[in-house]
Design brief:
Layout (H helix, E strand, L loop, with lengths): L2 H25 L7 H4 L15 E8 L5 E5 L5 E14 L2 E9 L9 E5 L13 E5 L12 E6 L40
Antiparallel strand pairs: 1-3, 1-7, 2-3, 3-4, 5-6
């Protein structure tokens, strides 16, 4: 398979995932889209797939595992642990995001990466968006830095973007990127 074929397969899989999510949001009773809005719901708005915004990040584990309180959209707080720094390069510049876990999370659970970027409040939800990162697998972690894929095409809105009745963790200041990430879900216009 050529690189072009791989890219097209990736885009096809991403578009299928988006179609399935839109169908879920329109039809399922547990959808975050309020029931009165589902009748006219034609799908979420997404940036076009951009394989360049699917980057490999080096993982820097954070020792200590101290619990801290992350603010939520309804002025509450939830417990999280700063688990790792994810260091990556975009457009020739270096950036980092912090990956979080709940104190009771097991090792196989995806890492939670809430973030804000320069698009927040413009084309994307003002409070920020989320990523879930699969933890690295494999032996040899002591000899080489571990790596994970950070795919901004999978960035999604928290449920509070669709309805004020949800309580959503807000990205901490340390997870604010000074660049525009034009990938993933755009803002939801009905809310």
């Amino acid at each position: 398979m050529s690189a072009t074929d791989d890219t097209q397969a990736y885009i096809n899989a991403l578009e299928e995932e988006r179609r399935l999510k839109d169908a879920y949001f329109k039809r399922e009773p547990s959808s975050p889209v309020p029931a009165p809005q589902r009748r006219g719901f034609s799908g979420l708005r997404y940036f076009p797939p951009d394989p360049a915004l699917r980057v490999v990040a080096t993982v820097e584990p954070l020792a200590g595992g101290e619990v801290f309180l992350m603010r939520t959209s309804d002025n509450d707080e939830r417990e999280y642990v700063r688990h790792a720094l994810l260091r990556f390069t975009l457009e020739g510049r270096d950036y980092q995001l912090t990956a979080y876990r709940t104190p009771e999370a097991d090792e196989d659970e995806p890492w939670f990466v809430p973030f804000r970027d320069a698009q927040a409040g413009k084309e994307t939800y003002g409070a920020g968006r989320y990523l879930e990162i699969a933890p690295p697998r494999g032996a040899g972690a002591e000899q080489e830095p571990q790596r994970v894929v950070v795919d901004f095409n999978l960035a999604y809105n928290p449920y509070c973007a669709y309805s004020p009745y949800y309580s959503c963790p807000l990205p901490p200041a340390e997870n604010t990127l000074p660049i525009a990430i034009r990938a993933g879900e755009m803002s939801y216009e009905a809310h």
